[in-house]
Give the backbone structure.
Amino acid sequence: MTDGAATELRHTSLHDLHVELGARMVPFAGYAMPVQYRSIIDEHRTVRSAVGIFDLSHMGEIEVTGEEAVAFLRYALVSDPGALEIGQAQYSMICQEDGGIIDDLIVYRRDGGRFWVVCNASNRAAVVEQLTALLERGDFGASIEDRSDRTALIAPQGPNAAALLAALTDLDLDAIGNYRSAPGTVAGVDCLVARTGYTGEDGFELFCDARNAVLLWEAVVAAGEAHGARPCGLGARDTLRLEAGMPLYGNELSRETNPFEVNLGRVVKLDKGEFIGRAALQAVQQSGPTRKLIGLRMVENAIPRSGYAVQADGRPIGHVTSGTLSPTLGEKIAMALVPAELAGVGNTFEVVVRDRPYRAEQVKLPFYRRPRD
Amino acid sequence: MAYPDDLRYSKEHEWVRADGDAATIGITSFAADELGDIVFIELPEVGGQLSQFGAFGVVESVKAVSDLYAPVSGTVAEVNEALRDAPELLNSDPFGAGWIARVELGDTSELDALMDADAYAAETA
């Protein structure tokens, strides 16, 4: 995948393993990453019915420490990390002054004054830049450290993920609830074991030193054999999160969208005190966003794709942010940004595919919710 | 990789099986493998005209949309309706049950512009 010295792609610690497994490697956020090993649909189904194993080592991990770590992160992010218990995590965003989203991310509280901010690979530099600028400007008693390059991230996701991990760790996984984490050893490797994910299934994200990534991956894969485990690539990661109604930065989220337009208003804690974007976001919340992210199900037979125009009664009014053939539902689904006043479950729209309009119906999000016992 | 030797092949990874003026066309296993899971095909209209190497339809995988290019000119006599509900046939049996259309050839000499199985194998090696 390299193209001479000018555009060398980076490798995660697991790159050679992926190639050996026959993965199709593609450029993603400057890394060579596996998009699929055998079949995106098979991998997708494996996560929904058994357990899929993902290499997410390209993602960013930024450690924030200090006496004023809470105050700093409260100021920099839209959520309130100060409300987190030790080990607890929250989904959040880092926004611009005008409320535009720089990145969506998950913050993990490691202890009283130590947090991990886990962000998209594609926005790691922007997040570090923003945090650094705010730290200096606000003169907070805190420091940040970009640990991404020495941190690997392996994610077993699916209903069998807990059973798989139980064989490799002494941690009481039942005590690690949704959006909780704990440090421990997995296959003898020191990890932060987090019950977080991007698939809509139960699952774990294992953060470890990059030097131990190969060992951990091989142990997880070996333990996975008893549970129908398969390695899964970014192709399946995308169809899984879309079915689960989860946004993708670059599709649903950008510096030109604010959290209220994309159903993430609940993440913004307007009453926590001053933070970057507060005034702009308060204004949006009060007046209501002008656009809304909706779910669409195709009624006529065409696949909606990111960027396709959306019409109402023949008039172009918005666009598809993400779309695909849903492997679980067998339906052609999409998320789209439309004017707020036109949104409503059951409303019909048209998606323009190769210059022809095809009817679609707005449906509730998420498209898929995992069965709860 | 050995491809069926009764077929002719285009650079765009389509195949033709010709029997006088009556031909069947499809995509090759190479194309299907490159695409990955095929989830949709936009079939040509019956009665429509194909022009050799012209775009005539679209095949979609999970992640991508690809144009189909006609390996021969002619009139579409029949399309494989099974592909509407089972586009995965293009992956599982691209030279057999995954055929795309039957075409009445306009000019059988166009087949000379296509590759035989050995040449296509060399092309895709």
